[in-house]
Amino acid sequence: MSPTPVPQPAFEPIPARGLTDDVYDTLLDMLTSGVFEPDAPLYIDRLARSLQVSPTPVREALARLESTGLISRTTRRGYRVAPPMSAEQMRELVEARLVLEAGALERALEDKEALVADLRSAWERHRAEAEKFSDPTLVFDVQAVHEYFEIDWSFHQAILDHCGNRYINRSVNALSFSVHRMRQTIGAGATDAPIAVAEHAAILRALEEGRDEDALDALASHLRNVAARSTQKDEGVDEGVGDVRKDGRSGRRTV
Question: Start and end of every HTH gntR-type domain (predicted)?
């Protein structure tokens, strides 16, 4: 006698990718590329005309984009590009990256050979892309700067990909939208590209030479320097945000 079939739950058909997704991707790319000025209004009808779509997918896309922090909505003002970040917000952002990325690197050391190979590849791409900015006019090329920062981020992504913790990976990537806001706040092009390449090289070199603690210190130093450059404080570039403990918490590094 055949077993009684187990009833299966009813599922709604999964819809195909729609127009709202395409509008979302387009607006997200425009926001992260710095096409819109901080705090600029976003008019649904105007965007719809520019994108040659109806207002509905634009409205739906903007509602989704609100969760990224790149735009905000108020009752009377409608949607606007997020305002510039304060110096305190930028410092807190870098502090969060310090805690998460230091922990990611420590975990990634368990897969060190593959990690170093991927970091070497990412660094070489970063160096090649940075060399393009010997042409000073590229600093004002929105698309070129956007592509540069994507390659810059790939060095950090290599660490996240090897850390073996999906939640750390997701958490750091969730901060990437705020990183874009920070760059837009300070009007950052790729003017510090040679410095960033050198700081990434220090992390890579320490790992290749077996100096894992120095690599952790170099990563923390790099992120602190980003904070100092971003907030444009008259302070030493290795000051102001705090060190990272070996256990990943903010504070003085423990040995």
Answer: 17-84
Domain span(s) for CATH 1.20.120.530 in the chain: 87-232
Reading the block at residue 165, the tokens are 């913790």
Name the amino acid, one letter, at 17.
Answer: R
pLDDT value at 239 more than 70: no
Question: What whole-number percentage of the chain has pLDDT above 90?
Answer: 53
Query: pTM of the predicted model, to two decimals?
Result: 0.73
Q: Where in the chain is CATH 1.10.10.10?
A: 19-81
pLDDT at 251: 32
**CA–CA gap between residue 188 and residue 93 (Å, rounded):** 16
User: Looking at the domain 19-81, which fold is it?
Assistant: Arc Repressor Mutant, subunit A (1.10.10)
CA dist list (Å): 4 to 1, 7, 9: 9, 9, 16
Q: How many CB atoms lie within 10 A of CB 99?
A: 19
**CATH 1.20.120.530 for domain 87-232:** yes
